[in-house]
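Predict fold of 3-keto-disaccharide hydrolase domain-containing protein; 224 aa.
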Amino acid sequence: MTQLPERLPALSSGIVLICLTMLFSCSKQDDTSPGQGQTLQEDFDAPSAIWREGDSGNGACFTRNGWLVISYNTGAMGTYHIWADAPLFPAPQSTRSLEIRMRHSAGHPDDTGTLLFSYANPSNYVAFSLGQDGYRVFQVVNGQTVNIVTWTSSPAIHSQLNEENTLQVKLAGDKLQYFINGRKVTEINAGEMMTLDRIGFQLYKASTTTTNTVYEVDYIRASM
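Predicted 3D structure, encoded as tokens:
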């Protein structure tokens, strides 16, 4: 069974990030209401002073109509990240489950949206990526990308523009389980990972034929 590589000592990075703080909030819809075992949910129902919204080069992050909008506005290909500026739960508690509902609302079919977790710094984290018809799991270790699960097709993915997809990662014992729209697509050894904190989101603009790429996040759930 595949196992995450051991994380190496952190290196510094010059990547410009827009940081955000997660908070408790009320649900926007019945299907995103808090349930058993759930302790935190962000629904993006209204702008908040604790969200560091704005532009960073070609990237932008802001809330609009109950969605967190992440955009990359350039004719060039490129990657844009946002990160939480603190763990979702303070130590010694650990985040054992993360869930995010998102949609690809503008761009090219080859663009990708990615849930980032177990973030130590911009050079060390784990990622669960979703494309039009496939998914990928990778880890960045000291700035070097290591594939854990290479791009793999899945019928669970809703592949059309503006269709919503739910990604979930569970830390279950010594296993990391990955779900797309409620269907488990892969499971790997978690190694020494004890929590999924901190988290973030990444988009990749895959083509020069479009002028921008936009992903929108409906909600983020986290539980211990």
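The chain has a mean pLDDT of 83.
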